[in-house]
Amino acid sequence: MTQRPLVLIAGDSHCEQAVKQERPNAKIVGVLRDLALVEYVSSEMFVDEVVLDSRLTPRGESLEGWISRFKKAFPHVAVTVFRESTHRNTAQVPAASVITSQTVVVWSPKGGVGKTFISANLACAAAIATQGKAALIDLNVYSGDVATYLDLSEGPTIIEMLPELPRLRPDGLDRYTQIYGPSRLNVICGPRRPELSTLVGVEHAKQLLSLAARRWGLLYVDTAPDITSDLLGEAIDAASAIVLVITQDVCALRQGKIALDILRKLGIHESSIHVVLNRGARDAPLPEHKVEEYLEKKLASVVPDDRKTVEKSAFQGRPVVLFPKTEIASSIWRLLSEVSPGLPLPDTDKRQNKTRRFRFW
Asked: Which of 20, 104, 285, 311 has a CA positioned 20 to 30 A from the CA of residue 14?
């Protein structure tokens, strides 16, 4: 039996459609618009061919220069240049979506806004959508509550892996990972006692994030609110997407706006920053549209103030995404579709989002 060639597309949906029409036997492994990501994916998985849109512009070099450098780095991968002028009759199709490795950092400069709640539920939803190919790291080492949210009070934590971390391979993380059964989410819990937090250094965080990103397709990181934390800085450096959690509280909004300004000054692209409004109330003095006006940023999702479901979730150690047919669960799935587009949504959420088009990267 002839094996189907594995094709990675560097381009848009038109390029993807043309490849599908011309090579129906090819297996498309991804559609990306960032050439740096194309290099990364090619180094992480086997690819037979890269179909390259001629309109893409590499950073700091010509397209011809990028192709030459790519061929030297990956001599086994064929490169085909796609020119739209030769495919003017290609039908219009929805924007392509694909999930490659992604590190999502969940942060808020204000404590008590439900950051860990968002982290646990977002990661759990991703694990459900990918059948266990997602992980959550509790990097809020001073007062991490991920283990409490997921009822994982027993088992290994980040502390146990520290002596072995410099020698670990990506699959070695499994020995220090707990599996949250209902969603098959891989969880690395924070220290059980705050005095142990001083053992976790910046180099540890750097090594752990690198290993975990290679071990799992989707990585979610819960962080401390302290903007001066070196661990937070390391997480932001490793992030491909940042979820900023706010509430309609005036102090939380003010600090959220400052946080947005800081992230922008760090050079983080606007499309990589996703703001979620937690505990949203329709009768609040500052409604959603006013929040967006103040932040000068569109909200990725609004998680409603549903204390009954949240309290039930905390008591049972089950994320709210495991409570089907609730508005709060649907809001988490909408957030996931914004942060990691291309993942399958539950049927109820597909109907709610059927007119939306997503693009990754």
From this structure: 104
